[in-house]
Amino acid sequence: MAAHRSGLEIDPSVSKVDAEDGLRKELATRRPLRITNKNLFDYIFIHSLEIAVEFHLPMQIHTGFGDRELGLRHCTPFHLRAVLEDKRFVKCQIVLLNASYPFSREGSYLASVYSQVYLDFGFAFPKLSVQGITSSLKELLERAPIKKVMFSTDGYAFPETYYLGAKWARDVVYRVLSAACEDGDLTIQEAIEAVEDIFRRNALHLYKLNVFHEKTTSIDDNTISSSSCLGKDDVILVRMVWNDASGQHRCRALPAERFYGIARNKGVGLGIAAVGFTSFRDAPAVGTNLTCAGEEIRLVADMSTLLRIPWSRNEEMVMVDMLTGSGEASEYCPRNALRKVTKVLLDEFNVTVKAGFENEFYLLRKSFSEGHEHWVPYDNSSYCSTSAFDGASFMLKEAHSCLKAAGIVVEQMHAEGGNGQFEIALKYVLCTLAADNQIYAREIIKSIARKHGVIATFLPKPDLNELGSGCHVHLSLWKNDQNVFMGSNKYNYHGMSNTGERFLAGVYHHLPSILAFTAPHPHSYDRIQPNTFTGAYLCWGKENREAPLRTSCPPGVPPDFVSNFEIRSFDGCANPHLGLAAIVNAGIDGLRRGLKLPPPTELNPADCASHERLPHDLLGSVEALAADKIFHELMGDKLVTSVIAMRKAEIEHYAKNPGAVHHLIHRY
Asked: Which segments constitute the GS catalytic domain (predicted)?
């Protein structure tokens, strides 16, 4: 509040003696006490900045209009230049509040010149006229990068000011960005991104709020007309969805009135034995230490994931977290496992992970032969076949529309190499959101196919004579909105940064253990074979699609660098949260220990005798996981123990019943 007492012309060299003298003078004045001594305020201000630097925290500073005693000429943020150029504070992020009004243009200039300056225009809204707010926001955006401008719902004295601030902010931001689109300054998509940044992402990043459920919204005319006209009154059922450790999608459907009346906040009960169910039997596997007589867990809705079901407009679905009876996250919760390891990565290295899945699946249609029902490929065509795509385009277009309505961005889709096989690739997002999106994407693709009388199966190898299906995942590392997996002029190991190399080295080192999560079914290893683009050998390579770990240089990235890496040994039987958690877990170990990668493999590893084969079967992966203590440490011993027991049970069952795998097309 220094701006509203003694002004922003802060003296960075003020001493503690000066501050104490100023305080004595204040205490000697008449009552009521109103502290305005500049030396005292400057000292507190500088000391606060020192604390902010020490703890890597941003500091908010009131600028512009405010209290009635305000001497406005002392409140321009230009007075802060001595502080901003002080070497002690060049890395301290400073947030100028109140839109710096009436000095908005000055605040915008400072944010464009000084990397540590950010702007918040929240408090201006309930105080100014709509025209005044519009003018101020335009001035803020004249020079300031959009990534440094944010809104906070602010007000005072009575609740309506907060409501007005929230309402007017949206109206005015829409007005200003619409004008920018009309003038050609922004495209519509850039304006949508700006809205996401201003109202959500910039603050999440700046204040390190660890809110991982970042949900973007795509604008589509059909979506607007259908969803905006439907209120909650027409919702009949709400599906509470989870993906268990065997990778199966499950849900509880509740009448809307019960969900919104009780279950939304209190959740619903689930016997803890259910978290140990396998793909062949709805009963806990021996060795999971889970029984039907055990404690109950609560399935509690994560309302940030609530979605109107595009193909069933009177229903909604929402992802759930698994909580204990006391309200704490259950150690068996896959979503919590991913949250835990990403939080460790953020806390220890200030790094986040973004991920994007490439979903391969088969479309199968029903056929009858000699009185028996069979499921056969939807077509018989080749990789990227135009006729294959044309024949299934009505389903693929509907799936795309539903994904778009769910805020899931599709980057491309095409026919794959197997008969009736297709791929839909999703845009990379924060990995916790990517895992949620992956579950919703599978749900959407399978449901649209079912609607048209066919099956979409993500099973790794539904036909042993055809190519397998994977869900390759691309991952990149980010810090302060910068891709830190990519190398630089300072450090470039085959296109990777030091951070990128160490993270990938951890994944490389622990890959046999990771497979127990990413290739979690005995059937998964029918797919992971040499010369099938699935990564059967322990190696890595740049753009080598026979390696399980491939560093990638997509269009737009300089040829000497790579922007991400791909794990090809990831399939549709995997729980995406557990698969990503295992990868991040291994990457953390690589960063902690400073692990190094061996040289890349440029040839087909099947032709190189020096390359070690990855586990031939699930048992090899499970044995590797059982001996790998870092997974027990970070992901939780109870969770890992139950996963190992489930995998062993499935190994035994499918060894005795090899034909049972054919029924899994209905489960995956």
From this structure: 334-668
